[in-house]
Structure prediction request, 468 residues.
Amino acid sequence: MSAQYPVDESILSALSAVAMRAEADEIEIRLEFNESTQINTLNERVTSQTHVVDIGGNVRAFVNGVAGFVHFDGWDNIQRHVDDAIQLAKWQLDFGQAIKRDEVQPVRLVQRLDMREDPMAIPLEGKVEVLLHYADIARAAHPQVRSVNARYFDRYRHLWFVNNRGTAIEQEKLDLGGTILVVARDRTGVAQRGVSFGSSNDFGAVRGLEEEVRSAALTAVELLNAPEVVGGEYPVVVDPHLAGVFAHEAFGHLSEADGQVGDAGLLAEMYIGRNFGPKGLHIYDTGRDVGSRGYLPVDDEGVEAADIDLIKDGVLVGRLHSRETAARLGEKPTGNARALHYRFPPIVRMRNTVIAPGDTPFEDLFRGIKRGIFAKGTHGGQTNGELFTFLAAEAYLIEDGVVTTPLRNAVLTGNVFSTLAAITAVGNDFVRYEGGGGCGKAGQMPLPVSHHAPSLRIERCLVGGRGA
Prediction:
């Protein structure tokens, strides 16, 4: 990493000394140095650009099971912040909720970034040039492409974390991503298609997207004259992008144990051993995919990452935990306690949600479908408990096993449990998709996450559109 960033391992020993003499059951001290860039462009011009550096930290103290949390800007007066967190915990003893936390082995780690192409070494002008280059390609693809909105961000973080259990961690982290959104327009309406990118170690993820941008432009134009999908229940094939989003949004959030411990009904639904899908369905969460935006070798409580099986052979076998939720449910922490920034305490979050590849060739996913829908990508969606709604970025009619007519406004909706049960084939076309979005929860967004998946065949899925 560039020499301009603070690399001082003595910080760990100084923080550890403060933590060890604190008069609390548990103390966690976290310091951060953050440097971020964001660029937005419209066609040939830059609409906004920012470069921000912030420095600060937080302290979390536990006294008789009650937590006190304080965050602060700057690195001055660490001892005062520790005292404040302890005092806050003591003030809440009479009315705060006491919690138990699972014990974990101390971790001692110094982790440096292993970059492929360092975005911090690319001048701002170079980043802008790449975005404007893609705008030129999209607009040249077809005269009905009227605008190209591009967004790019990168964020470098240097973190120090210690507790009074012997954990001492120094980490460098990088997150970058963005989207090239192509908008086509004619007298009848508007259509759009985007290209998204992301990485945790490589500016090269932003490069080489010319063919994808050109294809997105032509697809947006094609969708202008596409008929609207006729609403109804269909067999549906979803591509790896939409399958990954489904795994994250519709099932991954339900697997976060902090939502389960506060919801007896959900906990009863998400019981270990319940059958959720076909024998070939395997969904897991991992923080160990180097280069993925969900890469997280150690979480924000100092728990090392592991691959956590959620569904194995169609059966629910696990869930995502912090130290607190693990203790409450009598299970083990999984390394999923994450904080967006030093101004937030860690909560249970996904990292990289993965549907493992199956053994069905892609072309065989369509075999035997007399009339169905092939859905690709997503322009967003929402979940409400076990219910989900996703707007497909692209959709095509399947007729007698063949993909035919493009369609507009295909909205996939349903119950996650019945939809998982309706999966009848898992493709072998596994894709490591890295997008430029982020996950939101409890005011902490956009948190970097990823989702990797193959295509899926869902035998019955409700698709909203115009009436028949």
